[in-house]
Amino acid sequence: MYSARQFLDADVFLTNPKTLTKLVSLSLPIVAPMLLSDGLYSNFWCGMTPDYYYERTEEYKEILNYGKTGEFTVPMVHSAVMVNINLLEAKNLAFETKRLPPGRYGGPQDDIIIFAMSANYSGIPMAISNSLLYGYILMPLEQGETVEKDYEQLTNVKVYAVNEYGSLGLKDDLRGYVAEVPKDKLSLSHIYMINLERRPERRLKMVNNFDALGLQVEYFPAVDGKKLNDDVLREIGVEFLPGYTDPYHKRPMTMGEIGCFLSHYYIWERMVELGQEEVLVLEDDIRFEPYFKRRVYQVLNDARRIGGWDLIYFGRKRLQEDDEKWIEGSDALVQAGYSYWTLGYLINLQGAKKLLAENPLKKLVPVDEYIPIMFNNHPNETWLNQFHNRNLVAWSAAPLLLYPTHYTGDDGYISDTEDSAQIDKVIKLTNDTLDSSAAEKKGDKEQLMSSKVLVESAVNARNEDELDAKNRRIEL
Fold first, then answer.
1. Measuring CA to CA, how many Å separate 473 from each of 122, 341, 410, 435?
2. Angle formed at CA 118 by CA 113 and CA 122, multiple of 5 degrees
């Protein structure tokens, strides 16, 4: 019979209710659930140096990044560990050197290393399991770092859990010990979140994210493509760009794409009407990267100091292969190349006026085509030439601050733009000028990028730990 004891450090957060059941079912002598952090740090090693310290290996990153899944024998597990106490040898496990065999160990006085060596000397194998997403661990503070760093890491964990489970349940008797996070607008004029009224589950998840991050955000009801028809479009005054056909699907715009464009368009109009100088526009299917607020302030500080921008992507799908030039004087901003998605972007009043001045409702294309057209970085010259004042100045955060919650093919993936009715044949289109080069460069707007491609495309991310963490979260 398997009898287990588990030790759990205070900086561990097990979020999967199946954790204990899974670990017990493995019937392993010593096993640890793999935990994620903001970087390469986890609760296991794959290599140990002759003097008992951590040794980085390729297998470590492969396991951590879910390149392979299962249970793997490793020389070290710590922080969250299950031990089969029925093993006779288990009595030799120790955290103190005095309980190790005399004369065998001369390494550091570190409890986790001593435990690993006691298992080694006793012939008890240790394993790490990454069969499930078990939970998270905080990275140890470096010398000179304050408890504020731990609070930021806790916020990251809360956001991860919200994205995974939708909300964090809190028992009533604990509510008094958890203070509400003060909310602000990131020093901006306003923050809008676009959401369809018939998608309350997405809205709730976003509200839970905003609560965890301390963001003051206004819900902006999206224009629902299901409520659009030819008569409504005529009443609004919508006309379509002659020759437009989706480069991947070879089809006209869908009603969902029209509704998406109108949702962003009406926010630009509101900005001008209210004189809002700087606005963050968010969609409702996004996940926030770690240390989101701190990194936003870095982007804002650089953008305001340097000046000259109209729009800054916080999240996007980058479509150009060429490297994008860094904005001089910043290590957080690049010049935006041809990009898809409007997950989240910062726009100023001048940028909103530029986007409205071209009267885009009279030559409508999807919003994530229109924005690159307006900053004059689009592969279809025929489309470009039908817009005259392409003087929008668009930058991008580097690395990005936002990513989609789901990609095509993921469980739970829903597209209200792609999976909707196309415009009726009553609205005439002349599809005679499609530039084939655009089709070659674009691909499906919602297509899943492999983690390798995404990491390679994030040429601006200079920190290896950050890149690997991004890669890992995408795979989840």
1. 36, 19, 13, 36
2. 150
CB atoms within 10 A of CB 166: 12
* Residue 328 Cα to chain centre, angstroms: 26
SS3 (DSSP) at 312? strand
52 three-state secondary structure: coil
- The CA distances from residue 51 to 100, 247, 456, in Å, are 16, 58, 35
C-alpha distance from residue 154 to each of 138, 147, 151, 165, 462 (Å): 8, 11, 5, 16, 24
User: What is the amino acid identity at position 198?
Assistant: R
How confident is the model over 137-186, as pLDDT tens digits? 999 999 899 999 999 999 999 999 898 888 877 888 888 888 889 999 99
Locate 425 and state its tokens: 């044949």
| Tokens linked to 449 | 């990028």
Helix axes 147-165, 200-213, angle to 10 degrees: 170
Structure-token pair, residue 432: 């005679």
Q: For 210-245, write each residue's pLDDT tens digit.
A: 999 999 999 999 999 999 999 999 999 999 999 898
Amino acid 386 reads Q
Please give the Cα distance from 334 to 337 (Å, whole number). 9
